[in-house]
Amino acid sequence: MNSHKVLDAKGLACPMPIVKTKKAMNDLESGQVLEIHATDKGAKNDLAAWAKSGGHELMRHEEDAGILKFWIKKA
User: Fold this and answer.
1) Which of 18-21's residues contact partners 24+ apart within 8 Å by CB, and which partners?
2) Alpha carbons 61 and 75: distance in angstroms, whole number
3) Active site includes 46?
4) Of 4, 10, 14, 15, which is the active-site residue?
5) Distance CA 11, CA 40 (A)
C-alpha cells in the first residue's frame, strides 16, 4: 500500500505513538496516507480510536514479525 510518509514509532510506549502520529498528520494534506510502524500492542486500539475520533480513515493494519503497521488516510 502506498503512503506519503512513514512514521517509526517502534519501541515507544503509550501515549507516544499517538502523540507522534498526531504531529506527523499535521504535515500531510487531506487524502494523503500516513504509514505507522509501532511495537506497543496498545497502539492497535489506540490508533483505531484516534483515527475514528479525528475523522481519519484507518485503511489497513497488519502485524509483521512483532511490528504493527497501520495506514491512516487524513480526513
Assistant:
1) 18/43, 18/46, 18/47, 18/50, 21/47, 21/50, 21/72
2) 18
3) no
4) 14
5) 7
Please state the CATH superfamily assignment of the domain spanning residues 5-73 in this structure. Answer: TusA-like domain (3.30.110.40)
Each residue's pLDDT expressed in tens, for the chain with a length of 75 residues: 899 999 999 999 989 999 999 999 999 999 999 999 999 999 999 999 999 999 999 999 999 999 999 999 999
Q: Residue 33: CB partners within 8 Å, gap ≥ 6? A: 1, 2, 3, 4, 59, 71, 72, 73, 74
pTM (whole model) above 0.90: yes
Query: Which SS3 state, helix, strand or coil, does residue 35 take?
Result: strand
Give the list of residues 6+ apart from residue 20 with CB closer than 8 angstroms, or none: 7, 9, 12
The length of the chain in residues reads 75
